[in-house]
From TrEMBL:
GO molecular function, one term: thiosulfate-cyanide sulfurtransferase activity
GO cellular component, one term: mitochondrion
Lineage, opening ranks: Eukaryota, Fungi, Dikarya, Basidiomycota, Agaricomycotina
Keywords: Pyruvate, Repeat, Transferase
Name this protein carries in UniProt: Thiosulfate/3-mercaptopyruvate sulfurtransferase
Length: 285
């Protein structure tokens, strides 16, 4: 999050962490090129070559089963999973409840310098077509008729969506993209508590209903489940939008009729609102 004083590198090294875990840095495995990322936004989708290079450094092979976790329970790990799947990696899982749940349930941890691993030659592939939406695509979509429009779910807080609360980034306007619909990412999650100091996903049947309600009801959802329309996830910076993406993947995996065609607006609200020409809607409409 912007303005956070935490150092993920220091936390990884000092521990605790899952034994033999390797640190996957979403701000390093990202598009750092000023020509393709002119706004200098964090954790933007990397090129296939960059992704392959970083995976090779971590000793990952195309056949590896990659299990991802974060230190909040469910927060950044779905974005990492989305990145792997976008580049065609087949075996990808997210540890529900993350490191806090691992610790709370009494599993072994380690700290200090990690065990060294061998690098690999991870093969490079381009990202799956249609998985990432650009600013221009989002603007064009907002100008379409209700029959043609892709359904866009905004995963920021409702107060940021309506413009009542400020954005974490100083000077950035709150509000929302025209015709986008609000669905705070926290709705998908069982919140942290004294007995369970981590967030985790709600039961899959509940995830489906949350998505159905946000998308406009069963009729709208049927069109998504049949692939007649696409579902696009957005948030503040492209991180928590992936929580929604993974929720839909879980619904699909359970054969409960998840949206067939999905995408993520990589720049999300930060990229949209930074552009002076963007149309920003305030209020609940």
């Amino acid at each position: 999050m912007p303005n956070s004083p935490r150092s993920a590198d220091k936390e990884y090294l000092s521990g605790p962490r899952v034994p033999k875990a390797r640190r996957f840095d979403l701000d390093q495995v990202a598009d750092l090129n000023k020509e393709t990322n002119p706004l200098g936004l964090g954790h933007m989708m990397p090129t296939g070559e960059k992704f392959a290079e970083e995976c090779g450094k971590l000793g990952i092979e195309r056949s590896s089963h990659v299990v991802l976790y974060d230190t909040m329970g469910i927060f950044s790990s779905p974005r990492a999973a989305y990145t792997f799947k976008a580049f065609g990696h087949e075996k990808v899982s997210v540890l529900d409840g993350g490191l806090p749940r691992w610790i709370a349930e009494g599993y072994q941890t380690e700290s200090g310098s990690p065990v060294k691993w061998s690098t690999t030659n991870y093969s490079s592939k381009a990202a799956n077509a249609g998985w990432v939406r650009s600013y221009e695509e989002m603007v064009r979509n907002s100008e379409k008729s209700d029959d043609e429009i892709e359904i866009v779910l905004d995963h920021r807080s409702l107060a940021r969506y309506t413009g009542e609360a400020p954005e974490p980034r100083p000077g950035l306007s709150s509000g929302h993209i025209p015709k986008s619909l609000p669905l705070p990412f926290t709705e998908y999650l069982i919140p942290s508590s004294d007995s369970k100091p981590y967030t985790s996903y709600r039961p899959i049947e509940e995830l489906r209903q949350i998505l159905v309600d946000a998308a406009g009801g069963e009729e709208a959802w049927t069109k998504l489940a049949q692939g007649e329309k696409s579902l696009v996830f957005t948030c503040g910076s492209g991180m928590t939008a992936a929580i929604g993406w993974l929720a839909n993947e879980l619904v699909k995996e359970a054969r409960l009729g998840g949206a067939k065609k999905t995408a993520l607006y990589d720049e999300s609200w930060t990229g949209y609102a930074l552009r002076e020409k963007s149309v920003i809607i305030k209020g609940s409409e």
